[in-house]
Write a structure and sequence with these properties.
It contains 13 helices and eight strands. By secondary structure, the chain is α+β, with helices and mostly antiparallel strands. A hairpin with a 5-residue loop joins strand 6 and strand 7 (248-253).
Length: 406
Amino acid sequence: MATVTVQPKGKCWYSVISYKDQNGKWRNKMQTTGLTIKGNKKRAEKIAAERLAAFEEPEQLDENDPYLADYLRSWLKFVENRVEISTYNGYASSVECVLVPYFEPKKIKLKNLTLRDAQQFYDELMASDRGRGGKAPQPTTIRRYHAALHAALEHAVKMEMIDFNPTDRVDLPKQKQIMHNTFTEEQLRRLNRLLEDEDIGPLILFDSVYGLRRSEMCGLRWKSIDFEHDLFTVDHTVVMVKGKDGKKQMIRKDRTKNKSSCRTLPLTPEIRSMFFELRRRQEEYRELFGAGYNEADSEYVFVDMLGNLIRPDYLSRKYSRLRDKYDLPHVTLHEIRHTVATLLLKHKVPMKYVQVTLGHSDISTTANTYMHAAADEAAHETAGVMTNILYGENEKEGNDKNESQP
């Protein structure tokens, strides 16, 4: 329980309230009474007593029964070194900018969070103006906040702090079907002709054949190419992430996005020849620049003249600039991957083969993402079949009858 005393300081009486903070540590709150020391002690004590009566002691924190906002902060510290930097950054943004500011004023204990509380949070977000341009947030944004809250509560269940995760049964906004821009076959050929002599030209050609992710292309190493059997393996990635200081940094990983992303694909003769040419150039530049050549990145396939690894962010920027320079359709670098998938399906490559090539962990991901392309092709096929049934077969029957007549 808080106590109060009066103490002289300088020429005045001060009230000093002693209390325990949220963590159980004793603190002192000192305030001047405005009364001079001589002859005013009793008046000062009266003021101090009134201040004590109005003082609200902080509620003591209980590690076993924390407020949701406090738990979210502690969970963020727990996962900081247990997840990828990019994942942590996403969690931190959601927790610090959205979840804590929302739940802290409500003073909801972790154990008391209900499905209704969680649903109200999502509903209020959907009705807010927190999105771009003062509009409501996109469904993907809401789902990103949900991912952080759900993961935090899953950890609480694991640690036996709560019995179940109240966000398991919330109704989230349905994600909109994203229609990606893609190149036509002629546009894709033109793109590669125009970029043939650019430093990123080989990367774009490689992407145009296999539809790899940016991190997978930049992370391709010579030891992952088997020229004897004409195969290459996607087993290393290079990504750009924001560090704790907010600055971008490059992370090199001997793993891919998921287990299925680690895959072995066949080398086409054209790509095989391109790799031999790239290796020849690297030897030429190594000899030309001598000590100025960066040997540290020599294990990578796609490097610049000085041997520096072509960074993912540079690749995207250079590609966008050249695409606009040559007045090509606004197809992003990542959408070349979608172009490859769409063209494969158009040419009747089985969905399962497309899944393996793209490195999707589940065929449903491939189907959900590219079903529109398959549906368009199916619609043309079925319409063609019905047209043949209605017209082609009838015409054939008519010709048969005419041929049988004298």
